[in-house]
Amino acid sequence: MFRKLFITLTLLALTACSVPASSSTPGGLPVVATTSLIGDVARQIGGDSVSVSVLLPPGTDPHSYEPRPQDVAILTDADLVLVNGFDLEETLEPLFENAVKVIVVSDGIEALPFEGKHEGEDEHSLDPHVWQDPNNVIVWAHNIADAFAQADPAHAEQYAANAEAYIAELTALDAWIIAQVARIPQANRKIVTDHTAFGYFTARYGFEQVGAVIPSLSSGASPSAQELAALEDAIRSSGVKAIFVGSTVSPDLSRRVADDTGVRLVMLHTGSLSGPGGGAESYLEFMRYNVNAMVEALR
Ligand SMILES: [Zn+2]
Predict the structure, then answer these.
(1) What pLDDT digit, counting tens, does each position of 223-281 carry?
(2) What spacing in Å lies between the alpha carbon of 18 and ligand 1's midpoint?
(3) How far is 8 from 164, CA to CA, in rounded Å?
(4) Domain 25-176 belongs to what topology?
C-alpha cells in the first residue's frame, strides 16, 4: 500500500513538473505589492489565481519605509513585484534589482508635476500619489491585468473579466465622489494637508490646495519656521476650514498649526489602507472614508 502511494505521489510530481509553466502555481501566481493599496487592487484582479503579499504593513508611511532584512527574500521569491513608481518607493528601489520582474502599475498615467517650493525639493519631481483619483486606479487595473495575463496566460480571461468588473466599481466610485463633493459649497472646496498628497484629488474634483504643513511630496521633509508662518497666514486669509492629516504620519505639527489658526484637524487615509476595523480596509473603502470625512468637515 505504501509502495502504491509512493508511486502515485511520484506520478503526481512528474505530472506537476510536465505541466506548462503557464498553468496555475499551487496557491496562485506569487505576487508582491509594495503598498496595501496596490495589494488590494491586485487581489481584486487576481482572485484565487494569484497569491498577493504586501510588503509594507498597514499604516506604514511609504515615503519613509525602512526595508527589513526579510524584504529581500520576499521580493526575490515573487514572480511579479508591483510597484507604484514616481519615486514613492525610493527607499526600496535598491532591492528591486533582486526581483524577477518589476511592474510599475502607474505606467501610462500622466504624472502631475509638484508645484511646491520647499527648500531642497527637486523642482522636477512628479507627484506619486496617483491613487487619489480613481481614474488612475483604472490604469493600475489594466496594467495589473495585463501583467497577470502575461505571467499566467491560462487565466488571462479571468483576469480581464475581474478587471472589467472592478473598473466598473471604480467608475461608480468616481461618480459618487463627484456627487458628494457637490454637497460642499464651492467657496469651501479648499484644503490644507499634512504633506502634498492630494494633488490628483484636488485636480479631479475641483479643490484648491491652500497649503501643506510639510510643503513637500514626501512626508519625510520638515518645514522651516518661515514656511509654517506663511501657511498659518494662508489658512487665516483663505478661510479654509480644516487641516487634513494622514494616518501614517505624526500629527503633532499639524495639530500645532490647527491650534494656532483655530481650524479643525481631521484624520484621513493617505498612503496606506487601515488595519482590520479601521474603516479603510480596501481601496474603495479608503476613498469613501476620505470623501465622507472631507464633506463632513467642509460643507
Ligand atoms: Zn505621501
Answers:
(1) 889 999 999 999 999 999 999 999 888 889 999 999 999 999 999 999 999 999 999 99
(2) 46
(3) 41
(4) Rossmann fold (3.40.50)
Tell me if domain 25-176 and domain 180-298 are identical in fold. yes
The answer to whether residues 270 and 63 touch, using CB atoms and an 8 Å cutoff, is no
Of 170, 118, 107, 172, nearest to 144 by C-alpha is 107
Superfamily of domain 180-298 in CATH is Nitrogenase molybdenum iron protein domain (3.40.50.1980)
| d(CA 117, ligand 1 centre) in Å | 16
Q: What would the mean pLDDT of 91-106 be, rounded to a whole number? A: 95
* pLDDT over 90, % of the chain: 76
Residue 147 Cα to ligand 1 middle (Å): 26
CA of 270 to the centre of ligand 1 (A): 6
Distance 125 CA to ligand 1 centre (A): 13
Query: Is the distance from CB of 144 to CB of 162 less than 8 angstroms?
Result: no
CB–CB of 264/297 below 8 Å? yes
- Give me ligand 1 centre to Cα 173, in Å: 22
Q: Show me where the domains of the chain are located.
A: 25-176, 180-298
